[in-house]
Amino acid sequence: MHRGTTAVPGGAQRAVSVGRHDWVVLDSEEAHAQVVGDFVAEGVRRGERVLLIGVEDREERLRARLRRQGLPANAGAVLVLPPDPHVLRAAITDSLAGGQRGVRFTGALTTPGRNDFEAVVTELTATLPLTVLCPYFRDLLLPGQREELTALHDAEHDATAEYDDGVFRLVRDGSVLRLAGELSSADPDALRAVLAATSRATRPVTWDVTDLHFLDVDAADTLVAAAAGPPGLNLVGAAGPTGRLVGLVAGRHPGRRVRLADGGGEPEAR
User: What InterPro entries would the database entry show (predicted)?
Assistant: First the structure.
């Protein structure tokens, strides 16, 4: 990436990094798993070293997500670091000096506003081809910190969701609807959100359920009955029990058709 300038609030100009130093505001743990998970998976696909901090109990979920996508999830590809900015600096510079194809850094930043990790990556991305995504949870940001963080980063990622109640998350990704978390008949608002988004989608509808880790029978029945009419519903990432459940439910509704496409993920179905 070439150095240039970009506008910041107030009309000032700041230098754009040689690397890439972006940020994102997240509304839920499901948003973290999806947005950070996509960032990590992209790095692994590119053969880069991925460094994580602050993930704690999120680590296994991120690694499981990589495995579902058929990607390596071992420490050689993804390395979790202690929450120490000096360790991060050494890991980044050592990885690049050791011939890594690229290095990217992310995790979960729970200190609101400017912090020691931001200082390290701001310095390093000025001269090194480092790719950074700094995730902040919206409910931890204090007044005025969004403006401060906007000025500190190259760009803000769009993490807008059609629906996110902290348990179930629905995102429109081009012509695909991505379903994540838990979807059950006990959450009628989530079901209505899926149906409303589906009614606005290009037909045939495509749902990516790779990140959907729970689906109950009544919810599946409601959704198939409403969404799988001609020309049908394309389901990506529905391996194992979920694929069998949706196929069984579709059989109850004449004229409803579900096509299962390749993809990872084995949500629990009951």
Answer: MEDS_domain, STAS_dom
